Amino acid sequence: MARFSEGRRRFLGTGVGVAALAAGGVTLADAGPAWAQRLRETGRGRVIGVEHAGSLEGMNREVPAVVEEMTNRAILELTGKPDLVAAWREIVSPDDVVGIKLNCLAAPGMSTSPSMVRAMVRGLQAVGIPNERIYLYEQYPDRLADRSGFELNDDPRKGPMVVHLGGREPLTDLGLLGYESAAQRHESGESSYSNLLKYCTAIINAPVIKDHNLAGVTVGMKNMTHGNIHNPQDFHEHDCNPQIAHIYAHPRIKDKVRLVLCDGLRVQYDGGPQDNPRAKVRHHRIYAATDPVAIDAWGEKLVNELRAEHGKKPLSQRHPKLGYLVEAERLGLGVADASRIDARITQLT
Prior knowledge:
By secondary structure, this protein is an alpha/beta fold. The protein is built from 14 helices and 14 strands. 32% of the residues lie in helices and 21% in strands. Strand 5, helix 6 (141-145) and strand 6 form a beta-alpha-beta unit.
């Protein structure tokens, strides 16, 4: 897979990133809650899908040009704008500091598409956001470095910043990596949220769709919740319900996420969250949404349909408490009822 950068130095973020932001004149609180709320409301219950049967040459080998075209089309369809610059300006502004949350837990076979992310980065750059204000990140260093298609990078001359949070440590307020030293209260307990969430003005969530042995499914919301706190191990009981909803509802996440661009090139219907090649199918789609609950509900529907096709029991039998989506809707985060989700699929050839 193509690499974003050949840089291999570990980016520690001990004030370097913060200094860069200050030098760029960026106010970290700019364009946050109001913009995110507007996008959630205007896109409530809406999921855009773009399908191209030629997106994959093999289960784990994507066709970069096709995937990039699909990603661009998804943004155009979502925003209704005639060109990509205008479309991306509906999501971000030139002054934003953007974090792109990858999902590389099951790399290399079931992790965020590098081609999809490359198209996203080009869109951000076209708006006028420089490399030093674009952060591609994952939680754990081994997941990011383990054949995910991304390499650590701290040199903006080579591309966007590619970083990891450092696992569950450190708890510090110095720099962009690690987690805040002071825990934040949410309805399920306390967690130290990642420093990147604090410093970025906008987050783009770039998940995959797969079965999860503890949560039932994992799409966008869990990628943001358990992938941005220092103690995810404390919040897996009862099918992660209502923990996912509660952690997501904190302003650190709710007020920052502008967009979910979901890699649906493959869908894994059993054996997750690690890669399970025997329970994975080619789906050939890229999904876009600003409603985090709707995209998760759509992902749950897909996984259940595939489980039925392959003789597996529905998730409700394996996870009787599966209901974080209902709680998320109660908290006003989006639409959980699949019958009220407007999913529009565009076919490309």
